Amino acid sequence: MQPQPNCCPNPHLTIVQQLCWMPSHGQNLQRCRHCGTYWRFDWEERMNFEGGEDYVWEYYTCLTPEETEQLRKGEEGDFPNS
What we know:
Layout: E1 13-22, E2 25-32, E3 38-46, E4 55-62, H1 65-73
Antiparallel strand pairs: 1-2, 2-3, 3-4
């Protein structure tokens, strides 16, 4: 789990598949156009209704080929930080 992808000198990710989406949470499968590495991108937003700043949490998890296939097929599995 990390704040930015670091698979190559100039990562450029594109969304391959939307895995989960709710108004305050999302997860998708992304792939680097330069090196082909797959990443799971997670985000969450928690609104502060008392007038302060909202909390936005975003991170990337590098996936193995096996994890990528499981996600693409919608299979359950032991994924990093799930």
